[in-house]
Amino acid sequence: MENDDYTNSSPMVDDIYSNCEIDDAEKVQNHRPIISSDQIDIDAYASLYSGRTKIIRLLFIAERCENPNLQIEALRMAYDEIKKGEDVQLFKEVAQKINGRLGENYGVDFGWIEGIERRAEQRKEKLENELNAYRTNLIKESIRMGYNDYGDFFYAHGQLGDAFKNYIRTRDYCTTAKHIVNMCLNAILVSIELGQFTHVTSYTSKAEQTPEALEPIVVAKLRCAAGLANLETKKYKLAARKFLEVGPELANHFSEVIAPQDVATYGGLCALATFDRSELKSKVIDNLNYRNFLELVPEIRELINDFYTSRYASCLEYLENLKVNLLLDIHLHDHVETLYKEIRHKALIQYTLPFVSVDLNMMADAFKTSVSGLQKELEALITNTQIQARIDSHNKILYARHADQRSATFQRALHTGAGFDRDVRSMLLRANIIKHNFNHKQSSKETTHGLFRNRGPI
């Protein structure tokens, strides 16, 4: 899957990164929000992606959504997209899922299947003959290209394990840093689809060890890959940092894996769940590069602003409205509940932090919840030492446990005095030892004793 895009990248023209005029209608589609409080716009969503990930995401929506109309529309779009490629097995699966609900035009097309399989056999035989010839002649660059073409063939036909093996085999025939980066990007692409994020981390690190070949677009892709790997392994703070480091060069150059809107959504939610107030300000709100991504997803931008300005009820309401669509995201769905829980806990902690006492009735109104439910949440946070406070259950008041500064000062003074006393005693002891020449006498006595002890009989 040789890709030279990063060596001949064109200037950025998208209006999310500059004020240039948009000439292409497709670019306009690419800037539509990926999520909203309304039902997901399946056409706008699908237009953000290309290749296999477009199909896989559509199938994921069809499997997870509860709206039958949205489900069948996603299957229809997946069917049409698959017929542009060569993955026969995936085509059969989609046709089976449609099960005649879209008419005879969306059934199993045996003629198409037969044609694809016939051409696949011919292509595979040709690739095998070429690769054997290259290996016989020991042409290193040709062997690398042969394995790469073989990997592309298997990838196009959905045989991801074989594709990964052939992409990795090019490693021994890479002669430039650019070749190594291409190998790593191909391995990353297949590993993400296979869900093998250990490989994603490994090959991202390997690519980063060749800085001479890392053009801005490649750097952006690697940071996206690292962000996804950390997200999948629930390292949310690391994931947030990686997504926040993605440069505007990304644009739609990694649409076979991720869209710029995903960078805003994944990074924003992970940052809300893990960053403290100062980090949120410096690394997210004041981050000019990341602001371009947030402009694509106004809901996430508003979430962050509401959280930072302590409008927690509005923030949590936004989150609840977006939840249905976020659960349809192929990478985010497993993490929505955890991220939501962490964001809510952070909101509760930050709300109580400035106050000596908090009326639980007022706090419950601010968080749109019941007093009893709020009390249970606060009790859990107090138990986990995330909030230093105690609850007056009768009067429904939360009292902060601030340190007794006077007592703490006395304790520090006593500790310092004890240390001073210990040091003075040590100095006096040393002075007396030196004054009475105790070390010298002791050494002489031990030496003399040793001499007499070691002498034999006279």
TrEMBL record:
Name of protein: PCI domain-containing protein
One cellular-component annotation, GO: cytoplasm
Superkingdom of the source species: Eukaryota
PROSITE patterns tied to this protein: PCI (PS50250)
Keyword Aminoacyl-tRNA synthetase among record annotations: no
Major site of localization recorded for this protein: cytoplasm
Chain segments annotated as coiled-coil in the UniProt record: 113-144
Signal peptide residue numbers: none
Keywords: Coiled coil, Cytoplasm, Nucleus, Signalosome
Family affiliation: Belongs to the CSN1 family.
Chain ranges of the PCI domain: 235-405
Record localization: Cytoplasm; Nucleus
Pfam annotation, one family: RPN7
